[in-house]
Amino acid sequence: MAPAARVFAVVPAAGHSRRMGRPKLLLSLCGEPVISRLLKVLRQPPVEDVVVVVRRSDAELTAAVAVAGGTVVSSDSDPPDMRSSVAAGLAEIEFRWSPSDDDVWLLVPADHPLLEPAVLPELLTAWNALRPDILLPTFRGERGHPALFRWSLVTHINILPPDRGLNALRDLPGIRVVEHEVTCPGVTMDLDTPEDWERLKRIADDENEDFESN
User: Fold this and answer.
1) What's the CATH number of domain 7-213, 3.20.20.70, 2.30.40.10, 3.40.1190.20, 3.90.550.10?
2) 3-state SS of 24-90?
3) pLDDT tier at 158 (50, 70, 90 boundaries)?
């Protein structure tokens, strides 16, 4: 029997929240910061490490990530895009853990505060059963996060054309991509604008009321 794959998480969090107009990852949702809610979901077995890539100047977010148990990664120059952020996080994992080709890394942007804890175990169960190269959660047919990748794909990131994002990994020859439908709408709900914020707060408040009434 093959040994169980190790799992690592990369959370790109080096954006400037320009569309929100204020630091969105520190906004409080049901009494805790957005970034803390996400890390609580990701920091569960069998995830070995949750690496969060932040801007060096973002001291407040750095502190919040540390308190929530994430591994902070920053560099002398801020990552210009998500691909660069993810590459920095993966390099840190490579340095710390030396993953094997069949280990798993999962990607979830930091602004997905309504992910449910049960989603990750479900996706990992599907991964272990199907052994794809990439597994993408969907909700009502729409793709979302966290996306799961075989560690061997890390070597392809550095050789992608400069103008291609991480989605180009799905188009590589011979790559097997599997979609897995989940019941959690939070896989497709991100936080970019004040309108998004108001909508997510209403959903979170409704879910909290349902929980307390049961």
Assistant:
1) 3.90.550.10
2) HHHCEECCEEHHHHHHHHHCCCCEEEEEEECCCCCHHHHHHHHHCCCEEECCCCCCCCHHHHHHHHH
3) confident
